[in-house]
Specification:
This protein is an alpha+beta fold and 383 residues long. It has a domain of 157 residues: Thiolase/Chalcone synthase (Peroxisomal Thiolase, Chain A, domain 1). The strands form three sheets. Strands 5-4-6-7-1-8-13-12-11 form a nine-stranded mixed sheet, with helices on both faces. The chain is globular, with a radius of gyration of 21 Å. The two termini are 15 Å apart. It is an enzyme of class 2 (transferase). Its EC number is 2.3.1.-. Keywords: Acyltransferase, Transferase.
Length: 383
Amino acid sequence: MNEADPIIAILGIGTAVPDYRLDQADTARRLAEGLVDHPDSARWAKRIFKQCGVDVRYTCEPNLLESAEQCRYFPGKSAKLVPSTAERMAVYKRESVPLGLKAARRALSEGNVDLSEITHLITVSCTGQFLPGMDAALVRQLGLAATVNRIPLTFLGCAAGLKAVGLAQQIVGSHPSDKVLIVCVELCTLHIQPSTTREALFGASFFGDGASACIVGASGPEHRGIFQLGKPYSMLLPGGAEEMVWEVGNNGFDLYLSTSIPKLIGQFIAEPLEQFVDGGEKPKLWAIHPGGKGIIDTLEDMFGLAEEQTRSCRTVLRDYGNMSSATILFVLDEMRRELTSRGSGRASGVALAFGPGLTCELIQIDYVPTVPLQALVRDEAYV
């Protein structure tokens, strides 16, 4: 990095989840009851729910906590009772903005950033759409300037949260006085399908709802306990175009998620990571988007990662499930909490996420610890 280049960092992170809690064991039991006429599917559902690494998820839809007989999203329902795409989008429109507001306000507060400083708003979501969109609603309800540059990233899948961070890094790199607010909101559980197919049951086993936000800007000595950002890297991996498919159907969005994705990532991730590291040391920190337990397992095995290097990813998967684009900021928040609690020094690493395509998004991260003010004067490495 040139000495004249700004030090760009995530200055504050905020997360939020809906009020309704989905216990994994209870959800699997109720779903199996809905599959009583399909014993093979019921056995598959019980197994995948138990093995996917999730204990708890959250949902904005209280009907998903009802019994199998009353839940409109579970198998066994008349087609007339299953929520239509229009119904699901109405719930999305009602629930997405308040959740995004909560995460955004927490990020602004933690980063000690005034609303008047925000020059760009990047909103991210692939689980719903409406116009005027979430970006316009957030500008008005947060009280951002009417002239803020709004950039909606829609329908880009799980990798979009990290794509937004990379885009923000480039914006601030070109204009160091800019500050970018990123807000990711995903209501994945709205798209659970009343299907008996293995693909649909696999998708239903680990997706959850959540929102995350962060502020990206040029950092100074007053910013501690942050992640400084290197340049982003994006690559379309070969062979995965049909392995992660997300299409609009009459009863919500239809997801096809191949169980071969971890294997494909294992085949093709080495090259982009080698190019990204560019001959440097293997990253110490690994902020992996937990698209599923298999992805974490694959990367852990490939690169010989220690348990502590993937703990934050597995913790988020266990406690929240996969919240699509919002998840990576949950992982970074959890990683920062762990690093702070054990008094870690400065450490370098990588954040990575995968999405439809098969897309791989990467960005270098450097954890800068919280240190006493007097240490800032003594240690020129942190000034």
